Amino acid sequence: MLVEFNTLPEESRVWIYQANRSFSAVEINEIESKLNVFIENWAAHGSDLQAGYTIKYKRFIVLGLNQSANNATGCSIDASVHFIQQLEKDYDVDLMDKMNVSYKQGEFIAYKTLTDFRKMAKDKAVSKKTIVFNNLVNNIAEFKENWEVPASDSWHSRFIK
């Protein structure tokens, strides 16, 4: 069952998929249509899952699932992964590689490999104050508080002296 992302409870589980490029307005409209259909049909052992999504900065697809209504199962999580993999193919974009870092450069979102980010940190091209996206958050409360944070407040801090 599709619900508005911002109506999901704070403890709802989230999965964040970051794209290696920005989506165009046309792509976002198409992706939103596909997400609507997917979530409307998303189920765990025949039971509807109460879920929503948001697309942030034309680059991040965030799925939220109210686990107090129904928990995701291995099969339903696999279905969501297959859906995201199909989006990767449809739009020639990388959404599943967790070894990349997105961060703010002024108003823009930059995307680098972890190796490049480490080098930038070593070269002082990014600092503890650089706003990074911590895609390891687990629920909506963490998403609101700890997704978009200074590098010093994230796992990225290990690279910045």
Short description:
The chain has helices spanning 25-41, 74-91, 114-122, 140-146; strands at residues 13-18, 43-44, 47-48, 51-56, 60-65, 100-105, 108-113, 131-133, 148-150. The protein is α+β, with helices and mostly antiparallel strands and 161 residues long. The chain folds into two domains: 5-91; 100-159, no CATH class.
Protein topology:
Layout: E1 13-18, H1 25-41, E2 43-44, E3 47-48, E4 51-56, E5 60-65, H2 74-91, E6 100-105, E7 108-113, H3 114-122, E8 131-133, H4 140-146, E9 148-150
Written description of the protein model:
With 161 residues, this protein is an alpha+beta fold. It folds into 2 domains: 87 residues; 60 residues, no CATH class. Helix content is 32%, strand content 25%. The protein has 4 helices and 9 strands, in the order βαββββαββαβαβ. The strands form 4 sheets. Strands 1-5-4 form a 3-stranded antiparallel beta sheet, with helices on one face. The protein has a two-stranded antiparallel sheet with strand order 2-3. It has a two-stranded antiparallel sheet with strand order 6-7. It starts with 12 loop residues before the first strand and ends in an 11-residue tail after the last strand. The mean pLDDT is 92.
